[in-house]
Amino acid sequence: MAEVPKRGKKKQRDIAAEAVAAIILGIICIVLGLGVSGFYILSGDSRRVDVSVEEDFAPNARYYVSETSADYHGNIQAGSGAVAPTATPAPIVTPTAAPTPVPTDNGEEMPASDFIFPQSNTQVLTDADFLTKLTDAATCQRAINEIFARHGYEFHYDQNSADYEYFNSKSWYQVMTKKDQSQAMAEFSQAELANVAAISDYRTRMGW
Predict the structure, then answer these.
(1) Fewer CB within 10 Å, N side or C side of the chain?
(2) Which residues are CB-neighbours of 80 under 8 A, at least 6 positions away?
(3) How far, in Å, are 35, 107, 133 from residue 142 at the CA level?
(4) Positions of the chain with pLDDT lower than 70, given as ranges
(5) What's the predicted TM-score (pTM) here?
């Protein structure tokens, strides 16, 4: 009869041990589950590349982030919480040669400084050219009129006193054979025809 209580106590200890083991096993499964899911969450969208600060930079470590992760889209996130700024490459500026003076029909040179667009007779202009040079309706009209002036179009004081005085102050214009509109346009190059139309269109779009 004395053996019955001992067996009961042993059975209770076995049950308690199994319960503790089950709890520990459950905790291990939860930890492993979180670790695996975390791995797939991180590796599903991007690859992580960790970069540590080298020993040579240790004295200045506070100025550097401890590690950096970059995804496929080029976004950079600092491991310490700081965000590294995205650098924008500076535009490459190609120097352009100074425009060559254009001779008139009688050999007189037309200095580039006398024109808003010195090469409008040979180069088709774009909005990029207009943005830096054309600021109002008057400037647009001057840019068109200089194309006509290059072919000797005769300006009339009572119709356009500003351009009449402006172009008549230029030595190259003074010596040119004067023409009316149709005569001047008959000498236009394809670039000049395109530029007159483009400047007129730009002025309209700008509401001038």
Answers:
(1) N
(2) 65, 66, 67
(3) 73, 23, 11
(4) 1-16, 19-20, 29-108
(5) 0.50
